Amino acid sequence: MLLGVDGFEVCRRIRAASEVAVIMLTARGDDFDVVGGRESGADDYVIKPAQPTVLDARIRTVLRRRYRL
């Protein structure tokens, strides 16, 4: 739902240039989209609406795994 490029491509471009943690937060929640997000390089894929406490926990988990915090 981005202009001119989809989130999968944005994630691929980020992943090609960096190892920064990527969490996709999206309204697209069918299995095809979840798999596509993970295969494009996302560390996690969160479907909206997401409770703030759940989102916070998932962010902390990704950061802990990626950066060994």
Describe this structure in words.
- The chain has 69 residues and is mainly α.
- It has one domain (7-67): Response regulator (Rossmann fold).
- Helices cover 52% and strands 12% of the residues.
- The protein has three helices and two strands, in the order αβαβα.
- The protein has helices at residues 7-17, 31-39, 52-67; strands at residues 23-26, 44-47.
- A two-stranded parallel ribbon has the order 1-2.
- The longest helix has 16 residues, at 52-67.
- 13% of the residues are buried.
Mean pLDDT: 94
Order of helices and strands: HEHEH
> Globular, elongated, flat, extended or rod-shaped: what is the shape?
globular
- CATH topology description: Rossmann fold
Outline the biggest β-sheet: 2 strands, parallel
The CATH class is: Alpha Beta
How far apart the termini lie comes to 33 Å
CATH architecture term: 3-Layer(aba) Sandwich
Q: List the strand order in the largest sheet.
A: 1-2
Q: Helicity range of the residues?
A: 40-55%
| CATH 4th-level superfamily | Response regulator
In total, how many beta strands?
A: 2
Q: Helix count, per DSSP?
A: 3
User: What share of the residues does DSSP label as strand, in percent?
Assistant: 5-15%
Tag the structure with descriptive keywords.
single chain; 69 residues; mainly alpha; Rossmann fold; two-stranded parallel sheet; 3 helices; 52% helix; 12% strand; globular; DNA-binding
In short:
The protein is mainly α.
